């Protein structure tokens, strides 16, 4: 049993263990691929959580497939089926979506359910169990995203260059009303 210290190493090792399944189906996993554990670019905090994401090599400056597995996952079988789902995207091409060759490969390796939200069925679990035993424990603990509040408004800091008066204003009100007027300047004007 291996003992990986980073999630990325673990994900890469598990992907390598899955390679023969994909090769047998005629859809090899690309070699120019990188793995990370993070927040997918969309839907991570939504009701319909995005658990993983695959970016095609055209989106990477070094022509590498980029796979993200969500930080809300820590159970090894669930991580494995999300990883397998994203590996299918890399193997068949992201442009295939969740139809055609994606569906064919997903069913063949034992993923079940709606193709946009697959889970590992019994056949997948049987295939992946020895692989998970070989790569060892997933070096990650679940992170709860639900309690993190998204900042809704970014306030712009405006400072008077003469007296240091500071105020924060939304971009909307800067566009509507222009720069705020320093009350010190206003008071000086009223006194003259």
Share of helix among residues?
25-40%
Name of the top-level CATH class of the largest domain: Alpha Beta
Shape descriptor reads: elongated
> How much beta, percentage-wise?
15-25%
| Count of distinct structural domains | 2
Based on secondary structure, the structural category is: alpha+beta
Unreliable spans: 188-192
Mean pLDDT comes to: 88
Order of helices and strands: HEEEHHEEHEEHH
Kindly, what is the distance between the CA atoms of the first and last residues, rounded to a whole number of angstroms?
Answer: 83 Å
Strand order of the largest sheet: 1-3-2
Q: Count of helices?
A: 6
- Can you tell me the CATH architecture of the largest domain? 2-Layer Sandwich
Radius of gyration: 25 Å
CATH domain topology of the largest domain: Zincin-like
Note the main sheet: 3 strands, mixed
How many strand elements?
7
């Amino acid at each position: 049993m291996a003992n990986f210290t980073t999630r990325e190493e673990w994900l890469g090792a598990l992907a390598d263990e899955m390679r023969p399944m994909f090769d047998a189906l005629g859809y090899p996993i690309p070699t120019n691929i990188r793995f990370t554990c993070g927040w997918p670019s969309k839907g991570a905090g939504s009701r319909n959580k995005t658990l993983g994401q695959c970016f095609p090599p055209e989106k990477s400056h070094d022509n590498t497939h980029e796979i993200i597995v969500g930080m809300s996952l820590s159970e090894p079988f669930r991580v494995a089926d999300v990883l397998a789902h994203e590996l299918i995207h890399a193997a068949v091409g992201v442009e295939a979506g969740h139809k055609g060759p994606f569906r064919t490969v997903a069913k063949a390796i034992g993923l079940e359910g709606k193709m946009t939200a697959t889970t590992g069925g019994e056949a997948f679990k049987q295939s992946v169990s020895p692989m998970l035993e070989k790569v060892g424990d997933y070096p990650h603990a679940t992170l709860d995203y639900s309690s993190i509040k998204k900042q809704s408004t970014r306030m712009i800091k405006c400072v008077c260059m003469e007296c240091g008066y500071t105020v924060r204003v939304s971009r909307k009100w800067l566009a509507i009303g222009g720069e705020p007027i320093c009350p010190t300047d206003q008071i000086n004007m009223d006194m003259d």
